[in-house]
Design brief:
D-Maltodextrin-Binding Protein, domain 2, 9-stranded mixed sheet
């Protein structure tokens, strides 16, 4: 009897010790570095590369003297890719109007090139938080720009616009005559050559390329037609969108975003 009692007491003691140890053990939180990526984020990490659809568009994406991509969006893309631990490949979209078709087909992983956030974009892609504000402006020869005060003054001219762009959309909305071209760089060339009277392009590009000391010093910014916001387009339901939004918040809080904007002389509108 004493033998059985001793065994029972031993078992009770062991169970009590285990229960106490279990109660005293703290729940360990997973380290962010140990979290397993899922969805498209996992696919990008496995592929080791983020493929980005762009157009050549200073100061956002353009080539330096060595033929390497640089610019505000370019450097922001590299910073995001570094967080993901992947490389970047830039693909120039020859037809901006087909950007969402390229995205859905898998040719690119995102559209990131001073892309205006629109209702069409929200229907066809997962759009990030706003990272910059912009405007659509009229560019004319300097000797004509000052004379233009209203939209009605534009009705006598024909403007070059990037096909599928916000500039084209505002020209349609305001019943302004326009000629679609491949990109905003081509739009400026059309004005310089005299093929078109003027062009409607992004304010960010106009401020970087037009006026004294630029390649288009005989052109000038005239009036502003609309204001807009820039975002990055990922595939619908992609978890890359949330990953970018988190990166953007941290990048802005660190002060690096403001420094990058200053480097490329981009005005950050609050």
């Amino acid at each position: 009897m004493k033998k059985y009692l001793a065994i029972i007491l031993a078992i009770v003691t062991v169970l009590s010790v285990l229960a106490f140890a279990g109660c005293g053990k703290k729940e360990e939180k997973p380290n962010n570095d140990d979290v397993v990526a899922t969805g498209e984020l996992a696919e990008i990490k496995e592929k080791g590369k983020l493929i980005v659809g762009i157009t050549e568009y200073p100061p956002m994406n353009f080539k330096d003297e060595k033929g390497e991509w640089t610019g505000f969006d370019t450097e922001l893309t590299y910073a995001f890719a570094e967080k993901l631990g992947v490389d970047v490949e830039f693909i120039v979209l020859t037809d901006w109007e087909k950007k969402f078709i390229e995205l859905k087909s898998g040719t690119i992983d995102c559209v990131w090139n001073g892309m205006t956030i629109t209702d069409e974009g929200r229907k066809n892609a997962s759009i990030s938080d706003v990272y910059l504000k912009n405007s659509q402006v009229v560019v004319l020869p300097a000797d004509k720009a000052a004379a233009v005060k209203t939209v009605e003054d534009l009705k006598a001219f024909t403007f070059a616009v990037e096909n599928g762009s916000a500039g084209q959309a505002i020209a349609k909305e305001k019943d302004i005559k326009f000629t679609p071209v491949q990109d905003m760089g081509k739009a400026l060339l059309e004005v310089k050559s005299g093929a078109c009277d003027g062009c409607i392009i992004d304010k960010t590009m106009a401020e970087a390329t037009v006026g004294e000391g630029t390649s288009y010093e005989k052109l000038a910014i005239s009036i502003t037609l609309s204001t807009e916001e820039f975002g990055v387009a990922f595939r619908q339901d992609s978890n890359l969108t949330a990953e970018f939004n988190s990166f953007l918040k941290d990048y802005q809080a660190s002060g690096d975003f403001e420094k990058l904007a200053a480097k490329y002389e981009i005005n950050i509108e609050k």
